[in-house]
Amino acid sequence: MSKRSGRPSKGDENNSKEKIIYTTIAIIREKGADAVTVRNVCSEAGLSIGTFYHYFRDKDDLLMHFLKETSFESIYLMTPLSDIAGRITELYMFLISKYMDFGLDFMKSFYSTGNRSLSAYMGEVEGAFAPGTVMARSETELQSAIEHGYLSKKTDVHELGMDICTIVKGCVFEWCLTDGNMDIHKTLERIISAYLRK
Question: The whole model's pTM is what?
Answer without folding.
Answer: 0.77
